[in-house]
Amino acid sequence: MFSLHNLKRNMATTPKVVLLACGSFNPVTNMHLRMFELARDALNRTGRFNVIDGIISPVSDAYQKKDLVSAKHRCAMLRLALESSNCKWISLDTWESDQSKWSTTESVMAHFREVLDNKFNANFKPTQKRRRKIENNEADVDNIPKIIIDEQPPLLKLLCGADLLESFGTPGLWADEDIEKIVGKHGLVCITRAGSDPSKFIYESDVLSKYQENIHIVTEWIYNDISSTKIRRALRRGESVKYLLPDSVIEYVREHELYGVPDNKYINHLMPSPNDEAMLSPEPEEDNSSSSGEISMVLRSADSLSSRDTNDTSSLLSIERSPARLEPSPKHVPCMTDLGTLVRRVKNYNLRVFQASKITTTPE
Fold this sequence. Notes:
The chain is α/β, with parallel strands linked by helices. 41% of the residues lie in helices and 13% in strands. The termini are far apart.
């Protein structure tokens, strides 16, 4: 049954949450976006939080990480990924990527904390007249009970993977005061995988144990080991990345020749795979005068055999090798394509030998 008391309590005690993901996004993968969905479901399911927004903040070019493409390309791919997923509650923010110097995670969170506070104060800060009415518990309209909403600025929490949480224990990588501000002042939502034990790592860290109430562990039970590092490796090797990246991002990588694949047409999901091309290629036409280096069987005429022993069946056949006309293979085509062609040629060769032997052994 609807209760005005419950409405007031729920609106007053369920804080809103904004999730912030920092990183290279080099390139953005489906798992990056999946993390937001997992975190929102987990926090909302507790009944203690209401996730309202997600922010993606890519690192600036000053980070100087190996294989890091420019922020211009990374931001463009993020926009395409968000558009293709039709995700309205996650947005791209380029403040960090526009900085000329590398920004620490704590400073990025401090920036967005200020932005959220300013936005909240502009939208919800009551006027002096309104504040007096709230203090006096007066109704805005006569005979209508007033609902007092204890509106608070949304919480800001860092969305990350288990690897970032464990990196807090790497000596010299993080400043102790930064860890304390990130976890103590804001909080973490850590997406981990089945089989890992982040609780043990939290227990072994004094700082994380101190603020463990601000650390929310979300287990991804559907195993997914997609990473940008593995995506870049697959692209360099000409392997398919379809269903790992949004199609629009794959097309962008191909169009702008990113990640060292300027001549690799197979990253385009619209192109057939090399094996498909090998299966669909027509058999070469038999031509005794011209052939791509294949072995052809030629029957000698009866006149040319008059001086030979007709009982010698081996003399009825001769193996002629046409001049080799080697055709270059496509770049980056796996060797299985050439192997398939060779197998077909051997089969054709054996078939022609067998048919020729039957002709020579037919009684006159």
